[in-house]
Amino acid sequence: MTTLDTGTKAPAKKRALSFEWLGVAPFIVFAIMFLILPTLYLVGAAFVDEKGGFTLANFAGLGTPQIVAAYWISIRISGASAILGALIGLAIALALIRGKLPLGLRAAVMTFSGVASNFAGVPLAFAFISTLGRLGLATVILKFVFGIDIYKAGFNLLSFWGLTITYLYFQIPLMILIIAPAIDGLKKEWSEAASTLGATPWQFWRYVGLPILWPSFLGTLSLLFANAFGAIATAYALTGSSLNIVPILLYAQIRGDALQNPGLGAALAVGMILITGFANVVYLVISARAERWLK
Amino acid sequence: MAPFLRVENLVKSFGTTTVVKGVNFAFNKGEFVSLLGPSGCGKTTILRMIAGFENPTSGSITVDGQDITNLKPNQRQLGMVFQAYALFPNLNVGDNIAFGLKIAGMPADQRRARVEEMLKLIGLPGFEKRYPYEMSGGQQQRVALARAIAPRPRMLLLDEPLSALDAKIRVSLREEIRAIQLDLGITTIFVTHDQEEALSISDRVVVMNAGNIDQLGAPHEIYNKPATRFVATFVGHLNTIEATVVSASKHQVNIDGQIVTLPSLPDGAVTNAPISLTLRPEVLSVGERAGSDITLTGTVSDVTFLGSVIRLRVALGKNIISLDTFNDQRTAPPARGDAITVSLASKDLLILEN
Amino acid sequence: MKQSRFWAWLVFGVGAAYFLVPLIATFEFSLRMRRGYYSFDSYASVFSDPKFQQTFTYSAVIGLLSIIVGILIVVPAVYFVRLRMAWLRPYVEFLTLLPLIIPAIILVYGYIRLYNSSSIIPFTGSAVGTDILLTFAYVTLALPYMYRAVDTGMRTIDVQTLTEAAQIAGANTPQIIARIILPNILVAVLSGAFLTFAIVIGEFTIASLLNRPAFGPYLQNIGANRAYEPAALAIISFIITWGAMSMINLLSRFAPRTSARTD
Fold first, then answer.
1. How many angstroms away from the CA of A8 is the closest CA of chain C?
2. pLDDT tier at B11 (50, 70, 90 boundaries)?
3. pLDDT in tens, C121-145
């Protein structure tokens, strides 16, 4: 090969190379301008005080009770909706794929999951207000048909559980979409091999099936967590600014400098990036491990 | 002695198609039996019914005097090896082999000893801690074999265990499987579509065709005395010569203008009717040979050099037949276009029912 | 065996109830505008609202622009990375995953502070500039999905062989991309496009913080001020999302499967 690379060929090669860069350049410039720089700018701003000097005070400021409470409720809602969404999504996906349900049903659920996982934001909030709001259909039916007044029992759509139930509407479908290929990856021969070796179906799941799914499950769990943690539109439309979660706090800060400190706002954002970034690193590490298994 | 495995009137239908059409066979303890046939012949379905993965539409399966037809797979105490290894990817080799033992409740120290014993048996000592994805296909399949026999099953079921492997490993592993099987004396059923595999390692071979058993017998019986045309064509190479009966009473036939007298004709052969003669390539010799009573002349149409053997294609006229001759280092093989005389013993002709 | 099917149906039934009840409830609520009996008044009210028409058109146009910009950025990058710059691949994949790691609200916060009216590139200094910034923001938001769709499309057609075949036939690189690659990954690109549209059309956070008259902020505003129209809008949004997803499903049936490669 190398001996054929004579001088006459060299310019052609160079031109081809620059052409490749020309093709990739827009993507890279775009990523730098709209992903890297804005993020780095915020990270930088988090270390700058109001006079332009270096400071760690902004991160210390994250320790104020209001902000700690916001992080805490955000983590709880994201965690609850991720764990419940992952468990329920796994159960539904298992029922669909391994439960011998009609084949057409699976296609329908997959399509619906595609829709529902993208049906987040303001309209989703409207749907749940119509369902579980004070005048929502489910609330009214439970009250007048079954005699259960969920609001008297302490339920509130604009609360931790209300938001969690609402988030599940896009968390469960997302879990189904991501975990279904992993369940498909469970070979029929594995359960057959286990059964010829004397294992009951439960023993197969206990020792083989669920352990194989475990990395995918954990990985998707962290993805769901990050997904809920950054979401704001649903919560904002549902509760206005009454619920003190981090994205809503940040929204208020961007709108009108609610914290009266731009540096603190940047630190708030960096905190969010750290948390969602950590969840996603967990996802990447675990899913790489799962892929190695399923080769 | 009562047979160890008995299958009676086994039928399996999926919807309106019947893939196993009333199969009967019985095997003795310690036999190595192959179910041989093309894909879709029902051999795998029979194995899966024996394993318990499919419920027979009708019929019964008895192992060691126990009717297992309606038992769940995990109650049958059979070992199985799958085509695609099917090792549990989340468990290392040691845990894979110990899986059945653990389910059976064997204490940990005994399990460890048995795993070690098994690894020695399959020639992979010290592989306990490896994971399946770190091993070659041949190694994985050997571990799968060890996993299947570790709990001392009553019978070993092998579902095309060599199909996914390279040609070289396929041969060495099949010899290894046979050696282990003889060593343990375990009754084994081996499903394959590869006739060479089936003939080389089995005590007996069941040749299946479209849901029925065409022939059941020892490998040499299957090859030398095929019961049907299907068996003859599926197992080994077969020449078919289209001829015309010249005289039914004198057993004379016309092969591309050459009149040949045969010792007998199939029942129902009539004068002037067409007739098919079948023969193995290796019964034909180049030139005349002692014991041959039929001589034909033709032209060499193709020469395939296979090393120790040379396969010739000879055009007799419309009919083209294959024959094998040993490679003689001192003489050059025949060339394309050479005129050639071939001979055979008429007793080597196969009279087959269609 | 029967037992497992029972559990499967039970799980499926409970799940189906959770997902269908809100849709039914919302639809029922949307019909209750007139007292005493069901009517489509809320829908009529929504459709006749000029604000609805304006904001929806605005979001649709921005969505379309985002799709075009997204294709122009992603397709050549994926093509060259697949073809000759395999070493760049992990970096490009990491970049496309970033929008999943960094929440939209953070990105827009960064944009507002970085590209304000007194910066070198004052996107937010004018309405048109902000529209452009919004478009780029949506391209960013849809980047993971667009990239994956195009990458999957290119994987199934074996770009390398197609390119070499076209080069032997005398085509140059722009011709190869425009005439060979793009038509073959059209289905994948369109899938990415519909997904982009579904994400962008009702997007609230970025549009609201950039103060653009988009559909998302309009929805939020109606939600805060009206009773029955929000339910109607939720149903309409659901149908739009459903439509975009159905188009992707429909398109996947036409996906080319010319390659012998199975990876």
1. 19
2. very high
3. 888 888 899 999 999 999 999 999 9
| Contact (CB<8Å) A276/C101 | yes
- B28-83 pLDDT tens trace: 999 999 999 998 888 999 999 999 999 999 999 999 989 999 899 999 999 999 99
Query: Nearest by CB to C77, which of A27, A130, A168?
Result: A27
Separation between Cα atoms, residue A262 and residue A245, nearest integer Å: 18
d(CA A74, CA A80) in angstroms, rounded, equals 10
Please report which helix (H) or strand (E) contains residue A147, including its range. none
When CB atoms are compared, the residue of A16, A131, A280 closest to C21 is: A131
Average pLDDT over residues C45-58: 93
Intervals of CATH 3.40.50.300 along chain B = 5-234
Q: Name the DSSP letter for residue A209.
A: I
Share of chain C above pLDDT 90, in %: 44
DSSP B228: B
* Residue of C106, C135, C209, C252 to mutate, interface with A, max A Cβ within 10 Å: C106
Tell me: pLDDT of A257 over 70.
Answer: yes
Which domains, ranges and CATH numbers included, belong to chain C?
A: 49-252 (1.10.3720.10)
Query: Given the DSSP bridges, would you call strands B274-279 and B258-261 parallel, antiparallel or unpaired?
Result: unpaired
Given CB atoms, is C122 within the 8 Å cutoff of chain A?
Answer: no
Name the CATH code of domain B239-348 (choices 2.40.50.140, 3.30.365.10, 3.40.50.2300, 3.90.1150.10). Answer: 2.40.50.140
Provide the ipTM.
0.86
Report the range out of A46-55, A121-130, B221-230, C176-185 with the highest average pLDDT. A121-130
Question: CB distance A196–B79 less than 8 Å?
Answer: yes
pLDDT at position C182: 85
Q: Which residue has the higher pLDDT, B93 or B238?
A: B93
Pairing mode, strands B187-192 and B17-27: unpaired
Q: Please check whether residue C6 touches A, CB under 8 A.
A: no
Taking the alpha carbons of A264, A266, A269, A275 in that order, is the dihedral positive or negative? negative
B5-234 in CATH: which number?
Answer: 3.40.50.300
Record the tokens describing residue A152, joined without a space: 């008297």
- d(Cα C221, Cα C51) in Å, to the nearest integer? 11
Question: Tokens for C113?
Answer: 């502070």
Instruction: Mark out chain B residues that contact chain A at CB-CB < 8 A.
Output: 51-53, 72-80, 82, 84, 86, 88-91, 99-100, 102-104, 133, 144, 147-148, 151, 153, 157
Judge whether C66 is closer than 8 Å to chain A, CB to CB. no
Provide the number of CB pairs (under 8 Å) joining chain A to chain C: 260
Within 8 A of A116 by CB-CB distance, chain C residues are 19
φ/ψ of B258, rounded to 5, equals -100, 125
Average pLDDT, chain C: 87
Residues 6 or more apart whose CB falls under 8 angstroms from that of A207 comprise A194, A199, B88, B91, B99, B102
What is the pLDDT at residue A9? 42
Across B100-107, average pLDDT: 92
> Half-sphere exposure (CA, 13 Å, Cβ side) for B251?
10
Tokens of A144: 């007048």
Asked if residue B313 lies in contact with residue B324, where contact means CB atoms within 8 angstroms, the answer is no
Could you tell me the domains of chain A?
A: 2-45 (no CATH), 64-293 (1.10.3720.10)
pLDDT at B116 over 90: yes
| Dihedral angle of Cα A11, A16, A18, A24, to the nearest 10 degrees | -170
Residues of C in contact with A262 (CB under 8 A): 113
